[in-house]
Amino acid sequence: GKRVATASWDKTAKVFDVETGKEVRTLGGHTGYVWSVSFSPDGKRVATASRDKKAKVFHVETGKEVRTLEEHTGCVSSVSFSPDGKRVATASWDKTAKVFDVETGKEVSSVSFSPD
Fold this sequence. Notes:
By secondary structure, the protein is mainly β. It has no helices and eleven strands. It has strands at 3-7, 13-17, 23-27, 34-39, 45-50, 55-59, 65-69, 76-81, 87-92, 96-101, 107-112. The protein has a four-stranded antiparallel β-sheet, with no helix packed on it. A four-stranded antiparallel β-sheet has the order 8-9-10-11, with no helix packed on it. A three-stranded antiparallel β-sheet has the order 1-2-3, with no helix packed on it.
């Protein structure tokens, strides 16, 4: 790809141009550290996972927040787009993994394992 995204303890994600190394966009809106970022397969969106118990989806070109995913009760530590870009999977310190529909923001699936 032509861009790379980084997660940061300053509560943002940043998108950089690979060729020039210059920052293209700062993606804000979280109130906790950003732990993980993921590009959609078409490269048009970035999903972020944060200590604030939320995942967010942003348009890369505008930096506009498209969706906030708020179903976790613990820090969201990881995020990834599905291969078709229609869903986002998250993992959290609340010991669950969830799958969200990107367009609606609704949770479509959740997994939690018992301690035994």
